[in-house]
Amino acid sequence: MFRRTLLGLLLCATQAFALAEVAPDAFVMRLSSEVIDAVKSDKAIQSGDVARIRVLVDNKIMPNVNLQRMVVKSVGPQWRTATPEQQKRLTEEFKTYLINTYSGALTQVKDQEIKLRPVRAGANPNEAVIGTDVVGKGDPIQLDYRLEKAGDTWKIFDFNVLGLWATDSFRSQFARDLSAGGIDALIDRLTEKNKSIAGSKS
Predict the structure, then answer these.
(1) Is residue 13 part of a domain?
(2) Rounded to 5 degrees, what are φ and ψ at 122?
(3) Do 143 and 163 contact (CB within 8 A), yes or no?
(4) Can you spell out the DSSP letters for the chain?
(5) What residues contact residue 173 under an 8 Å CB cut-off, 6+ apart?
(6) What is the pLDDT of residue 192?
(7) CB-based contact 144:135 (threshold 8 Å)
(8) Cα–Cα distance between 171 and 155 in angstroms, integer?
(9) Is residue 16 part of a domain?
(10) In this predicted structure, what is the pLDDT of residue 113?
(11) pLDDT-above-70 percentage for the chain
(12) Taking all residues of the chain, what is their mean pLDDT, rounded to a whole number?
């Protein structure tokens, strides 16, 4: 009995410690700090090597993003009418576009630090909004994240820069192409944008 009780206490303690480690604000702080530290310590990135920045984003940030949810929120109802092949192609181009978006922001990182704002509990325990300020020279930059619980960790499914949520911005950008030519038109436009960005940064 004593052994079972002890094992039960140890299990509860282990679970509590694990939950504490994956608190949403701790997750955001860890990820943000790792990315900024990587940028600051890489001379190639500091000199403007965009290819290196893209590799960093793809390896460090994207595994922590729920890409599927971001695509669905950004495209809206037409996502449900797309074929599996269209959804696959759109997701691939959206991922490249998102990496380019993150990479562009990281080229501006110099001496900034991340400061967490107080966490407010939401109605859904499996989702959280974490607010941060990017602090450096000049005024702080508001950068917030919408997170969802994914097993024993969290995933980003939206982010807010200076008051504008990314998926709302993308949805507004995509609406014209979707209205004019549907999913194929949006895929073509994203492909064109990604090629243009790659050409201008190469």
Answers:
(1) no
(2) -105, 175
(3) no
(4) -HHHHHHHHHHHHHHHHHHHHT-HHHHHHHHHHHHHHHHHH-HHHHTT-HHHHHHHIIIIIGGGB-HHHHHHHHHGGGGGGS-HHHHHHHHHHHHHHHHHHHHHHHTT-SS-EEEEPPP---S-TTEEEEEEEEESSSS-EEEEEEEEEETTEEEEEEEEETTEEHHHHHHHHHHHHHHHHHHHHHHHHHHHHHHHHHHHH-
(5) none
(6) 95
(7) no
(8) 20
(9) no
(10) 87
(11) 88
(12) 84
85 token code pair: 């092949």
Of the candidates 136, 131, 129, which has an alpha carbon nearest to the alpha carbon of residue 117?
A: 131
Say if 86 falls within a structural domain.
yes
Query: What's the number of domains the chain is made of?
Result: 1
Q: CA Rg, the chain, in Å?
A: 20
Domain, as residue range, for 87? 24-201
Question: Can you say whether the dihedral through the CA atoms of 55, 59, 65, 70 is positive or negative?
Answer: positive
Q: Is position 150 within any domain?
A: yes
Tens-digit pLDDT profile for residues 102-126: 887 777 777 788 999 988 777 888 9
Tokens (6 digits) for 114: 């991340």
pLDDT of residue 112: 80
Give me the pLDDT at residue 88, please.
Answer: 97
Residue that wins the pLDDT comparison between 19 and 86? 86
CATH number at residue 68: 3.10.450.710
Instruction: Using alpha carbons, list the distances in angstroms from residue 70 to 45, 65, 90.
Output: 27, 8, 12
List phi, psi (to 5°) of 85: -65, -40
